[in-house]
Amino acid sequence: QVQLVESGGGVVQPGRSLTLSCAASGFNFISYGLHWVRQAPGKGLEWVAVIWYDGSNKFYADSVKGRFTISRDNSKNMLFLQMNSLRAEDTAMYYCARDPCYAGNCYTPDYWGQGTRVTVSS
Amino acid sequence: SSEVTQDPAVSVVLGQTVRITCHGDSLRGNYASWYQQKPGQAPILVIYGDNNRPSGIPDRFSGSTSGTTASLTITGAQAEDEADYYCSSRDSSYNQLVFGGGTNLTVL
């Protein structure tokens, strides 16, 4: 069955860095785009970033552009999110989600992991 | 980036029909998706491409889009449908994905 398992979350001080990972299994990894989506405590979903199935395109939310970097390792079925210059407002549950990339565009996440929690606090 | 708005809360009597809507310029010309999220759980896709159901999603869930408004309709709401619902669409102007603020559905 499809599995997406996030890891790497934790408590980090403002201004520091953290890297999240997402291990995928149960589907043809290289055929899917991948997203990071976050949810602050008690708040709604906020899209963070997407990477195309072949890594050819990467797009980011304005709130993280220049600070976060999405990447993938298709040889290991892994997705990553490098987060630099972390702020209190980055505190959230971070979900990875796969995307079938209908018509070659990756804007429909269809299966989500259970998330990893990031807390930015001094 | 564009904004997509939803009513914060909607209620429906058990077995009745409810429509949840979202509004935004990004919906014009782009497909809408809908996600269901229950407390402490990850979101689940219930509608994609305006009105397509993933396998395993009951046929009481349907979707439609007209102009800048997308709708999720639950025909014959069940107690297990009580959840938060989020719409999403591509924001073509910025190559981003945008989510609505979410609608909390209560089944009475």
Helix content of chain A: under 10%
Helix content of chain B: under 10%
Q: What structural class do you assign from the helix and strand content of chain B?
A: mainly beta
Mean pLDDT of chain A: 96
Shape of chain A: globular
Regarding quaternary structure, what we see is heterodimer
Mean pLDDT rating of chain B: 95
- Radius of gyration of chain A using CA atoms only: 14 Å
Characteristic key phrases:
heterodimer, A: 122 residues, mainly beta, seven-stranded mixed β-sheet, four-stranded antiparallel β-sheet, globular, B: 108 residues
General description of the model:
The complex is a heterodimer of chains A (122) and B (108). Chain A is mostly beta strands. Chain A has no helices and 11 strands. In chain A, the strands form 2 sheets. In chain A, strands 2, 4, 5, 6, 9, 10 and 11 form a 7-stranded mixed β-sheet that branches. Chain A has a 4-stranded antiparallel β-sheet with strand order 1-3-8-7, with no helix packed on it. The N and C termini of chain A lie far apart (40 Å). With 108 residues, chain B is mainly beta. Chain B is 0% helix and 48% strand. Chain B contains no helices and 10 strands. In chain B, strands 2, 4, 5, 8, 9 and 10 form a 6-stranded mixed β-sheet that branches. In chain B, strands 1-3-7-6 form a 4-stranded antiparallel β-sheet, with no helix packed on it. In chain B, a hairpin with a 2-residue loop joins β6 and β7. The model of chain B has no long low-confidence stretch (mean pLDDT 95). At the A-B interface, β5 and β10 of A face β4, β8 and β9 of B.
In short:
The complex is a heterodimer of chains A (122) and B (108). By secondary structure, chain A is mainly beta.
Question: Topology, pairings included?
Answer:
The complex is a heterodimer of chains A (122) and B (108).
Chain A: E1 3-7, E2 10-12, E3 18-25, E4 33-39, E5 45-51, E6 58-60, E7 68-73, E8 78-83, E9 92-99, E10 111-112, E11 116-120
Parallel strand pairs in A: 2-11
Antiparallel strand pairs in A: 1-3, 3-8, 4-5, 4-9, 5-6, 7-8, 9-10, 9-11
Chain B: E1 5-6, E2 9-12, E3 18-23, E4 32-37, E5 44-47, E6 61-66, E7 69-74, E8 83-91, E9 96-99, E10 103-107
Parallel strand pairs in B: 2-10
Antiparallel strand pairs in B: 1-3, 3-7, 4-5, 4-8, 6-7, 8-9, 8-10
